[in-house]
Amino acid sequence: MPAGSQENGNLAVSRYNHVVEARDGSGLLVFNSSTGAMIKVDPGIAELIAKGAIQSLEHSVVEQLCAGRFLVPPDLDERLLAFSETMAVWYGSPVTQVVVAPTMECNFSCAYCFQGPNKSVRSMDSDTICRTVEFAKTLARGTSGISLDWFGGEPLLEVDTVFSITSSLREWANSNRLGFWGSISTNGFLLTPATVDRLVSLGVTNATITLDGPQHMHDERRMLKSGDGSFAEITGNLRYAVMHMRIAVRSNVDQVNVSSIDDLHSYLVQQNIVGSGRAAFYTTPVDRFNDYPHCMSDAAFLEFFEGWHATHGAAAGMWLEVPTPARACMARRPKAYAIDPDGRLYKCLEVLGREELSVGSVHANPSISSVSLQRWSMLNPFDRPECMDCSFLPSCRGGCPSRWMQNGKPDCRWGPAYLNSVLRAFNNHYEEVAAGSGQCDKST
């Protein structure tokens, strides 16, 4: 697709289209980053669109292309539209998000942990617990509800704090006729049936748990501080948890365990942990934190990622997300903060616990430091020429704000190569699901 819109009659080609060939060569995938829509077309149609020969297209095809904004009115200022829609996503969210880390301590000793080996062992005291609850209530006033997410460290090391804050905020939300949604990121070792039951009763119904391979591999990478393995306990807990919570099993992939992921997935399916009506399963690369030496290159991970999804397609529990302009990270949303055990406030989980990057404290009045917050709000992709000329602007928006701030430039790590792999994998997944249900219309 051309970099800018081409006029042709009453329609023009969107500047935010991206085209990649399907993995099996059966057509071209066209993705529009301003809507998140994707359509598969044959090469002939793609050529007509690229040439601006829109009048040669059938009316039904044009309708589909207009619906996904692959074709737009020629006088539409797409950059201005991208700006206004971005502002709506960043500042228009009706939900307050509060991520609470009741401790940065962990019962595991994972070599690649982004928080490093020297975590603080402090936990929230009673005063910080009370002030955290009051901060969340104040932040949520005027919104439609609270999304309370538990993080760490390992949050279940402070399970009483988890129960206390969750109970207080859920009761307050209910009494004020606000929505309440709860989730937890945990290593799963302490997610016992009794804890699951209590969490669900309080409205914490979603959990993300990490497994890094079958038992021998996982226990080498994610062992307890005592050196003992954790796999058997976690999978035992999962057998109960998947019947009562929405579970996502995440596998962190690097050079060491990349060949073991297939065995892990097969085991989880066999154990009825992952699959229809059970947990979802996804992979993510281990990032380069704390000089961990076994990270995959971006190209190597994408090769694994695309091959993995091509092989497994619509296999049980596979979870795959396509970039969407409808999502914004907490750094961009004024009603979203993370809170560490000392009550300090942050705009990104990657910097949680780093006091120099906090933007306030639940103990301060006012709680939020406008000066510290400016470091994040000044990261504006619409002020950057490289972003304004990029076809991924409406979905990427300058990439990860934390990495932009640390590196001094927009975070373009996951650019065209990543998008190509995701689109091909998603198309493969969709076609396998659709073929299995007899509803597959592979191309326009």
Keywords:
about 450 residues, single chain, TIM Barrel, nine-stranded mixed beta sheet, disordered C terminus, disordered N terminus, alpha/beta, about 35% helix
Structural class: alpha/beta
Domain count: 1
Distance between the termini: 17 Å
Task: Write the H/E string, N to C.
Answer: EEEEEHHEHEHEHEHEHHEHEHEEEHHHHH
The DSSP helix count reads 15
Explain what the structure shows.
The protein has about 450 residues and is an alpha/beta fold. It has one domain: Alpha-Beta Barrel (TIM Barrel). The protein has 15 helices and 15 strands. It has a nine-stranded mixed beta sheet with strand order 12-11-10-9-8-7-13-14-15. α6 links the parallel β9 (about 180-185) and β10. α4 runs parallel beside α5 (about 160-175) and α10 (about 300-310) packs parallel to α15. The longest helix has 22 residues, at about 415-435.
Short description:
With 444 residues, the protein is of the alpha/beta class. Helices cover 36% and strands 16% of the residues. The protein has 15 helices and 15 strands.
Question: Secondary-structure blueprint of this entry?
Answer:
Blueprint: E1 7-8, E2 11-13, E3 17-21, E4 28-32, E5 37-41, H1 43-51, H2 59-67, E6 71-72, H3 78-91, E7 95-100, H4 126-140, E8 145-150, H5 159-175, E9 179-186, H6 193-201, E10 204-210, H7 215-221, H8 231-241, E11 246-253, H9 261-270, E12 280-285, H10 298-312, E13 336-339, E14 344-346, E15 360-361, H11 370-377, H12 385-388, H13 393-396, H14 401-407, H15 416-437
Parallel strand pairs: 7-8, 7-13, 8-9, 9-10, 10-11, 11-12
Antiparallel strand pairs: 1-2, 2-6, 3-4, 4-5, 13-14, 14-15
